[in-house]
Amino acid sequence: MFGSLIGHILYGMILGVTYATLDKMWVRLFIQSDPLNREANGPGLRVLQSLGWGALAGFAGGIVSSPIMLQTGVLSKVAGIDTSLTNLHGLALHLLVSALIGMSFGLLFRNESPNLASGIAWGWLFGLMWWYLGPLTLLPLMLTGVCDWSTDAASALLPSLIGHLIFGAVTAYVFLRLEHRHTRWLLLDPRMATREKRRVRPFGTPAPALWFLVLGLGVLLPILLG
User: Fold this and answer.
1) Are the C-beta atoms of 167 and 133 separated by less than 8 Å?
2) Rg of the chain's alpha carbons, rounded to an integer?
3) Is the pLDDT of residue 214 over 80?
4) With DSSP H G I counted as helix, E B as strand and the rest as coil, what are the percentages for the chain, rounded to 5?
5) Nearest Cα to 158, choosing from 70, 214, 222, 62?
6) pTM
7) Distance of CA 8 to CAs 13, 55, 63, Å?
8) Other C-beta atoms within 10 Å of 184: how many?
9) 109-154 pLDDT, tens per residue?
10) Between 20 and 30 A from 46 (CA), which of 25, 128, 141, 144?
11) Biggest alpha carbon–alpha carbon distance for the chain
12) How does pLDDT run across 6-31, given as a tens digit for each residue?
């Protein structure tokens, strides 16, 4: 049933992204468009900021995780070319894809982390989801047209799981540093300080318990079953 588990994980990921997108669209159209709730910075500027910070954070995460991806052979598979420049092509594609993935992190996880510890936990979860979506699903589909969701395939890709977790943690760390640096400037204005504090996810929610449950199952099951 391991293949069915991966299918359910990807279903939950698609469901969450779709729900978050519709929720953000609803807030933009029916709440923040109200003149009483209108902000100094429009939603377009916030989206561009999230994309830019996410791209920079993802690029940094790609650089830090590239040695592990190189040792596990993921970079050469991404390149898909059997030449002396395979690793160079793979590294360039890896950094490009990392920046694009980081942009999605910026859109989904802005204002979701009240502190650094929770942000890194979100990053680990983000990296874990992309391990199931990337090497186990999308990469085999692009190279062979068939994805292998067996325990043997997951066991062979376990070293790259470490790289994805490192990528997620570094991406979250860099993004949070950029976000908090921008927020500190906004907190200088008392009127904006109250509004910014309402944006951030408060403490005391069930989110940390869900993080560790999903991380524990997502990491331990491929190890135990493989």
Assistant:
1) no
2) 19
3) yes
4) 80, 0, 20
5) 222
6) 0.80
7) 9, 28, 30
8) 10
9) 887 777 888 888 889 999 999 999 988 898 888 878 888 888 888 8
10) 128
11) 61
12) 899 899 999 988 998 898 888 777 77
* pLDDT tens for each residue of 158-187: 888 888 999 999 999 999 999 888 777 666
Name the residue with tokens 């933009």.
Answer: 28
Residue type (1 letter), 135: P
Query: Burial of 200 by CB count in 10 Å (0-12 exposed, 13-18 middle, 19+ buried)?
Result: middle
CA–CA separation, 134 and 98 (whole Å):
11
What is the C-alpha separation between 200 and 215, in angstroms, rounded? 23
Nearest-CA neighbor of 18 among 107, 125, 86, 95? 107
Q: Which residue do the tokens 């902000």 mark? A: 39
Q: Strand runs (DSSP E) across the chain, as ranges?
A: none
Structure tokens at 222: 């491929």
Report residue 138 as tokens.
């999308």
Q: Which of 99, 101, 78, 94 has the alpha carbon at shortest distance from 13?
A: 101
Report the alpha-carbon distance of residue 77 to residue 71 in Å, rounded. 12
